[in-house]
Design goal:
five-stranded mixed sheet; 16 helices; four-stranded mixed sheet
Length: 529
Amino acid sequence: MPVRRWVWGFAVALAACAGERAARNQAVVVAAVGEPESVLPPLVTETVGRDISDLVFERLADLQTGAAPMDTGAYAPRLAARWDRIDARTLRFHLREDARWSDGRPLTADDVAFSFAAFADSAIDSPARPYLQGADVAADDPKTVRVTFATAYPEQLYDATYHVRIIPRHVWDSIPRERWAADTGTARLVGSGPFRVAAWRRGRFLRLERRSRGSAAGGGITAVIWRFAGDPDAALNLILGHQADLMELAAIPAAAPRVAADDEFQLLRYPSAAYGFLGFNLFDRQRSRGHAVLDRATRRALALATDRTTLARSVFGPEAVAPPGPMSRLLWIWSDEIRTLPFDSVAAVAALEAAGWERGGDGMRRRRGAALALEILVPATSGTRRQLATALQAAWRSVGASATVTAVDFPVFQERLRLGRFDSYIGAWLDEPSARGLADQWTREGWGGLNYGRYASPAFDSLFRRASAEADPGVARRLYVEAMDTLNADAPAIFLYSPTNSAAVSRRIAAVRLDPLSWLGALPEWELR
């Protein structure tokens, strides 16, 4: 009898160990650089937070990557099973009948209306807020919601779907919105997506578990664990030490060869949503006049002296490209037809001399006693931007222009941009699927916003407005191309690179498809060997 009891107990222990091992084998670990402040959609600002949030919360519909936002045929149902247009300003969404929150309660049209109101609330000040101003959202019945915009425009479906992830009213309605950011309880992170938040140990890890509604069969992934590292090297060590299965390598592109040399990992590449540029300051704010050195002819000459393609590849690898304007390869308006200033050092020298810049005995140029000298401002935390600035410094020196590279702490970098205290700076932006976001960066409307260099062109602004208001994707693309031609001819910036991202992926994970706009977005479809 005692022996039988021991054998039975040993069998139970073996079964428990096997169950734990199976559960662990169906989990994947992500090595993340940094930890998000929040994963509640209206509060998410970091890419790590977005990666987590995208598996827990859902949109009404998803736009196909690379598609034109005004193309209504490019959207796939998500929380909304279907939608229809009532009039020029109003869309009606019909929610999935089986849509439920992870706590078991049904998801309703009231939740959708509540979510739109939260994203548009100034107390939260979500990045989506400008796109939702004036929108009226109301429930027609528990499974039907009506979205009425203040004006008619082509990208209404995009604004109603891409910017807003739906959150539960019954969880958050009783809490003042100004207190949401301080509420860190995981019990409130109730979503409708394929995963739910199971645990979050601040400073260590966050664990998602597959919901029963979408539980993985066979070799599917049942849990995802983010391990938070304080810097890129620490995160990479989790991969090289085989303590993690996944890592996006955008922060340390030089790590790719080390990962590729490890037989337990594959290196997957995909186009980045980022683009980088050198932006010129066109306006002397202290004297309320144009910059004394950086007039149009001089900016164009400096652009002609820049070998953008070689520069991009030397810093970001052979798969990086020089963009034809302020865009990554993911933005639907990317076109080889956009006219750019070519690399031509002979033409650069001729342009500088035509603009009155005479070369002295030291090889440097002067005009009316003033030196052709400028500062390139970069954040000290970015090694790649310092590398780009140093390469530009050498290229411009060869044509007689002197450049000083100044690296400052990121808060100082941001403050100097805001105050206009710079000659030039190296910046980087992440694309969204809509080109309308470029208005804040390059139109007159963006003064006081992200248009730090104060570029202003009535011709560009007019073309940009016409393109943004065009419902036909083909016509809109042609107008955007013409607008970019105008921008490039004025050379308010030199568009330097659009990189190719790399991800380290354990070879025990199969059927991997990476979404460039949210690299783990398709993870629910992946399988484990």
